């Protein structure tokens, strides 16, 4: 059965995307097509904040892109050595909260210990943070221009201070239309399509509707998390499954 995953390919240590491998174990032939590109913003301001861990109670990462922004700050400002020898240790003395194993592994690679990765989505992470934190120094939350409001609202309601900084924005991948057309012409209509974010849905749905035509009702739509599932439902599309966490096993199981 052919399934289409609208995400960037990411090779793991075995040289294969973990989603393709995991779905393959279930006899599903998965193809990846990226639908989003990213532009980074406010890196000098973010870099300055990263240089002053004493002003914060910890960090929150809800996307791999936010972690990439940290790496770019360190490279751009020649702070890699300072990070290794002092900053990393100071941040590790605080809480570093993450959503999902993919984000967690990237945070681990820059030398930070993480907690909360098993929460699976921002809402559950917010509950976890609220159960652990007491109002003190603000948590630093690097995020994208389109961030969910659930986590900030839940922390605010509990009186836990948080400082957001927008460090990236999502833009349509330049090859969406060509890549989708090529897939449909070579492989036909997929049995299932998985969306990985509301933004990915926004930038690809029109092309999918045009290519699928009257056969769109045959496709089973899957979402990687609750916010994406809500976005699908808002477009009037039936959601066949929502992965319990943003991981290959959870999606494959769904």
From TrEMBL:
Biological process, per Gene Ontology: heme B biosynthetic process; protoporphyrinogen IX biosynthetic process; uroporphyrinogen III biosynthetic process
Sequence ranges assigned to domain Tetrapyrrole biosynthesis uroporphyrinogen III synthase in this UniProt record: 19-252
InterPro entries in UniProt: 4pyrrol_syn_uPrphyn_synt_sf (IPR036108), 4pyrrol_synth_uPrphyn_synth (IPR003754), UROS/Hem4 (IPR039793)
Pfam families: HEM4
UniProt keywords, alphabetically: Heme biosynthesis, Lyase, Porphyrin biosynthesis
UniProt keyword Manganese present: no
Pathway(s) where this gene product acts: Porphyrin-containing compound metabolism; protoporphyrin-IX biosynthesis; coproporphyrinogen-III from 5-aminolevulinate: step 3/4
GO molecular function annotations of the record: uroporphyrinogen-III synthase activity
EC number, UniProt record: 4.2.1.75
Catalytic activity entry: hydroxymethylbilane = uroporphyrinogen III + H2O
Membership in a protein family: Belongs to the uroporphyrinogen-III synthase family.
Stated role: Catalyzes cyclization of the linear tetrapyrrole, hydroxymethylbilane, to the macrocyclic uroporphyrinogen III, the branch point for the various sub-pathways leading to the wide diversity of porphyrins. Porphyrins act as cofactors for a multitude of enzymes that perform a variety of processes within the cell such as methionine synthesis (vitamin B12) or oxygen transport (heme).
Name this polypeptide is given: Uroporphyrinogen-III synthase
Source species: Felis catus (Cat)
């Amino acid at each position: 059965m052919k399934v289409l995953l609208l995400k960037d390919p990411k090779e793991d240590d075995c040289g294969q995307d973990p989603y393709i491998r995991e779905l393959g174990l279930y006899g599903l032939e998965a193809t990846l097509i990226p639908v989003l590109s990213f532009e980074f913003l406010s890196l000098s301001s973010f870099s300055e904040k990263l240089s002053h861990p004493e002003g914060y109670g910890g960090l929150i990462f809800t996307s791999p892109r936010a972690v990439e922004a940290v790496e770019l700050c360190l490279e751009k400002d020649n702070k890699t050595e300072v990070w290794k020898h002092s900053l990393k240790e100071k941040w590790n003395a605080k809480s570093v909260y993450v959503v999902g194993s993919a984000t967690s592994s990237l945070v681990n690679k820059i030398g930070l210990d993480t907690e909360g990765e098993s929460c699976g989505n921002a809402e559950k992470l917010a509950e976890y943070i609220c159960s652990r934190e007491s109002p003190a120094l603000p948590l630093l939350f690097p995020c994208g221009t389109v961030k969910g409001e659930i986590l900030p609202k839940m922390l605010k309601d509990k009186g836990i201070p948080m400082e957001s900084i927008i460090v990236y924005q999502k833009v349509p991948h330049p090859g969406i239309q060509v890549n989708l057309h090529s897939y449909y012409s070579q492989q036909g209509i997929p049995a299932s399509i998985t969306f990985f974010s509301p933004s990915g849905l926004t930038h690809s749905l029109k092309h999918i509707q045009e290519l699928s035509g009257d056969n769109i009702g045959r496709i089973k739509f899957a979402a990687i998390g609750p916010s994406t599932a809500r976005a699908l439902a808002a477009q009037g599309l039936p959601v066949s499954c929502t992965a319990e966490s943003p991981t290959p096993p959870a999606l494959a199981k769904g």
